[in-house]
Amino acid sequence: MTHAATDVSRWRSVWRQLPLLVALVFLWVFLWDQVTVLTVVTGILLAIGVTRVLYLPPVLLSGRFNPWRGLLLGLRMMFDVTVASLQVAVLAIDPRWKPMNSIIAVQLLTRSDLVTTLTAEAISVVPGTVVVDIDRERGLLYLHALGTRTRADIDRVRRDVLGTEERIVLAIGTHAQAVSVREARRERRALRSQTKGAGS
């Protein structure tokens, strides 16, 4: 391989990694909750270090981004964070509240490392839930959830996690993944309708 061809191949590799680098920098700035020169520069250095030094499984990007779905994802994230923050604040000052928490396993619909990571991050950002472990081989998320006293509470947490995964897939996932999560959503709704019909 010639020197020119090697350079082209290297630049193609960098270009393919660029969305991941940008996402890591954005995540770092988001965690610090402030946009400064220091946070941006350290985010860039850490993103380069993580992708170059630490072993990571190959991240397969779909090359697809739906702006409308991306906007809905961002708005829903802000809504969830706001509502959950208020709920946790109320519980913290309520003298009658007795903690009842759970470790819940949630089976994700996709096996994409990128979707799994983004879903875990999105869940952990919302107060009251935090991912404690990930089974990458089986696509399982284990999360600690606040205020899960009944089976209905646990089912609600699972629905919220799957809803977050669905919104992420519809925003950046492949066409096949989008079709899969839509079909799974229809099946969940049909199952809930049957359950309600049987209980009435």
TrEMBL record:
Keywords attached to this entry: Cell membrane, Membrane, Transmembrane, Transmembrane helix
Main location per the UniProt record: membrane
Subcellular location per the Swiss-Prot or TrEMBL entry: Cell membrane
Gene Ontology CC: plasma membrane
MF annotations from Gene Ontology: monoatomic cation transmembrane transporter activity
Classification via InterPro entries: Cation_antiport_E
Membrane-topology annotation of the record: Multi-pass membrane protein
Spans through the membrane: 20-50, 70-93
Recorded family membership: Belongs to the CPA3 antiporters (TC 2.A.63) subunit E family.
NCBIfam families for the chain: PRK08965.1-5
Protein name according to UniProt: Multisubunit sodium/proton antiporter, MrpE subunit
